Amino acid sequence: MLSIPDAPPPPDPGIPSLGGLQIAPLLRHLARKTSPDTAIVEIGSWLGAGTWQIADSIRGRAVRPEFHVFDHFRANKLEAERATEAGLEVMEGQDTRPLVNFLLSDLETPVHLHKCDLRKATWKGGPIGLLIEDAAKRKHLFASMLETFGPSFVPGETILVLMDYHLWREKGSRPMRIEYRAQTEFIEAHPASFEHLGEPDIRRTSTAVFRYTEELDFAAAVADWWAEDNEEESAEN
């Protein structure tokens, strides 16, 4: 089960956060435990608050896992406003990858920033030991993420940090709760492949942590998932 050793409070580099700083102890603990023979993948970085914590936690290792970050790196209105409130000049629509590179520049850990439409992301980096997901909240993105990265999960080793796993519980309307329940729906449909390790011991978190335990044909599983939607639509019509 999920157990995080007691440690001093994590350093705060002053990067605006939408959740990465809140779960920093968890991210740092899991990153330090990740085998250098596998990669760390973060999906959704915003301005890199969580990214910084992960990179900082592994920079002292003699041999480090490669660290790859996938994001559209384009600020929407809310993100631009929050960044501005925190003292950073960010405009709506701005390419934020150069800024994230700058904010990570004090670290010695190479971080590979991939700017892309997450539905078109590609992965050729080998086995994945740790995956942090903070962007694929809805079904179409989560399904794409599974098809792209799932085949590189290692049974018994890969850890998944799903930062929005419980987010659907906070939605008021039934359609929104259904839309944001995609992660829970898929994980619960494949209990043999995902062991629930728990939630970080912090207030108001939507995060849940899982270990990938049994090999799964992700292409087939995702195809079946979409087929279930089509069957439900046909039944309703």
Describe the structure.
- The chain starts with 23 loop residues before the first helix and ends with a helix.
- It is globular.
- Helix 1 packs parallel to helix 2 (49-58).
- Strands 3-2-1-4-5-7-6 form a seven-stranded mixed beta sheet, sandwiched between helices.
- Strand 4, helix 5 (139-149) and strand 5 form a beta-alpha-beta unit.
- The protein has helices at residues 24-33, 49-58, 77-85, 97-103, 139-149, 174-179, 182-189, 218-236, and strands at 39-43, 66-71, 112-115, 128-133, 159-162, 194-198, 208-212.
- The chain has 237 residues and is of the alpha/beta class.
Low-confidence stretches: none
Mean pLDDT: 89
Major sheet characteristics: 7 strands, mixed
In the sheet with the most strands, the strands line up as 3-2-1-4-5-7-6
Helix content: 25-40%
Strand content: 5-15%
| Helix-strand string | HEHEHHEEHEHHEEH
Distinct helical segment count: 8
From the alpha-carbon coordinates, what is the Rg to the nearest angstrom?
A: 18 Å
Q: What structural class results from the helix and strand content?
A: alpha/beta
User: Termini separation (Å)?
Assistant: 44 Å
Number of strand segments: 7
The general outline is: globular
